[in-house]
Design brief:
single chain; alpha+beta; Rossmann fold; Tumour Suppressor Smad4; 2 domains; six-stranded antiparallel barrel; four-stranded parallel β-sheet; 8 helices; 16 strands
Length: 304
């Protein structure tokens, strides 16, 4: 079996990603596999390397990194149907936690040998990036509004590697900015014309201690959507306090829906709220999202 092993060396802490990747390569090669290791150096490297690969070049792609690296690989192989092996060493590892991915090299090697493939839903999203229409895939979550504004600000300030401390200035600036309203069309029906915040989830977990789309399942064939109407940036802080307590869905301005297609349109052309996908700032609305049932193949250990 020929395996592409992609590692983000700065993912996690204290060089854990490289230690994990080296240990995994060793045990895979001892098991008779051919392994090509690729180390990312900057954002976009994992996407480029997987896009360059032929559909039949590798039997699987192992991804040692966090949510961002995994999302790049998903976008590189999604249309080639190459199975992905998530090896979570990042801060959140939203999707990996949901599907039961492991960091233990022996378990990973066993799941590859047994070809323990699970198929989960994949989301295709179209959005604007500097007036250019683009398309991406994701399998965990996306958001519009406050969260995306924070991510967008910290991406432009290049302080993301500072951990939570790097987010503080961006959070403060986002709280002081005015919320921008947008419309939500779910399965062809207008459900809101005054939304200011939205999360699309394929899994319940949103990162950190937050579970927002609490009923989401990556095998349901639907996307779970939580949105707020007329929420100010300060109200969002109260909303997240409710998330920690498990009471956020009781907020009078918060709604929970499920759908297969979603469209988001700005109320004003000059006010286009930002979009993040799996914690990466990618562009702005207008946005359209559709579910591809069982569109992504993952290899993970069998759950006991």
């Amino acid at each position: 079996m020929k395996i592409l092993l992609i590692v983000n060396p700065i993912s996690g802490s204290r060089g854990i990603a490289m230690k994990e990747a080296e240990a995994l390569r060793k045990i895979l090669e001892e098991s008779g596999n051919s392994v090509e290791m690729f180390k990312t150096q900057k954002r976009g490297d994992a996407l480029q390397r997987t896009q360059e690969s032929d559909a039949n070049e590798f039997s699987a792609v192992c991804v040692v990194g966090g949510d961002g690296t995994l999302n790049e690989v998903i976008n590189g192989v999604a249309e080639k149907r190459i199975p992905i092996v998530p090896v979570p060493v990042g801060l959140s590892n939203v999707l990996a936690k949901e599907v039961g991915a492991s960091c233990e090299p022996t378990k990973i090697a066993e799941s590859l040998k047994a070809k323990n493939i699970i198929k989960i839903d994949l989301f295709e999203v179209e959005f604007l990036d500097k007036d250019t229409k683009k398309k991406r895939f994701f399998a965990a979550m996306a958001g519009v509004g406050f969260d995306a504004d924070v991510v967008s600000r910290i991406t432009s300030s290049r302080k993301r590697n500072l951990g939570f401390a790097g987010y503080v200035p961006s959070i403060a600036k986002s709280m002081l900015s005015r919320s921008r309203m947008f419309s939500i069309i779910a399965d062809g029906r207008i459900v809101s014309n005054k939304a200011t915040y939205l999360v699309v989830g394929n899994v319940p977990y949103y990162g950190g201690p937050f579970y927002i789309t609490t009923e989401a399942s990556p095998t349901s064939g639907y996307m779970d959507v939580v949105y707020g109407e007329g929420l100010s940036s300060f109200s969002i802080i109260k909303f997240y306090a409710g998330v920690l307590l498990g009471t956020h869905l009781r907020h009078r301005r918060v709604r929970y829906i499920r759908c297969k297609r979603l469209e988001l349109m700005p109320q004003k052309e000059e006010e286009t709220p930002p979009l993040h996908i799996d914690g990466e700032a990618v562009g702005t609305i207008p946005v359209s999202v559709r579910v591809i049932p069982k569109g992504l193949s993952l290899i993970v250990p069998k759950r006991t």
